[in-house]
Amino acid sequence: MRIIESKPNFFITDNIYDTQSGFRLLGPVRKRINAEFYKMVYNTYFDAIPLQDISDILNVYNIFLIQEDGLPWSGFLLGDSSQTQIDLAQYDGESDSYSWIKNANLQLQWYKMESGRYEINTYVG
Questions:
Q1: Burial class (CB in 10 A: 0-12, 13-18, 19+), 21
Q2: Region for residue 78 given its phi and psi (left: phi exceeds 0; alpha: psi -120 to 50; beta: otherwise)
Q3: pTM here?
Q4: Could you report the per-residue pLDDT of 70-84, keeping only the tens digit for each?
Q5: Domain ranges across the chain
């Protein structure tokens, strides 16, 4: 498990999302998340695709990977070199449901090198 060095000092009540036009990820939050991703992957090669570490970073911001059917994402990432996009959602504990974030998704690319280790590029787009 990866320890995140700096946790944000704000939560959903501090206007992470603009709810006037649906749940939308605000630019400063996107930048903070992408900065965490950059620190994780910069000059680092992985034995496996670090999807749990990526998910842990998002969870700090109450953002979760979600499938098309509205459930938490589960699946396989296959291939030596590929890319995928995964939808993002906010979890609402009161209704026990997820609400899609309309203007953002996780972009994930990987390349398996001859050494067997992975080069990863990931960001919230």
A1: exposed
A2: beta
A3: 0.84
A4: 889 999 999 999 999
A5: 23-70+80-124
84: which 2 tokens? 């995928």
- Residues whose CB is less than 8 angstroms from the CB of residue 110 and which lie 6 or more positions away in sequence, other chains included: 49, 77, 81, 82, 83, 118, 119, 120, 121
Cβ–Cβ < 8 Å for 16, 62: yes
pLDDT in tens, 38-55: 999 999 999 999 999 999
Beta bridge partners of 20: 22
Task: Give phi and psi for 29, each to the nearest 5.
Answer: -70, -45
Beta strand ranges found along the chain (DSSP E): 63-66, 81-92, 97-112, 118-124
| Locus of tokens 């991703």 | 37
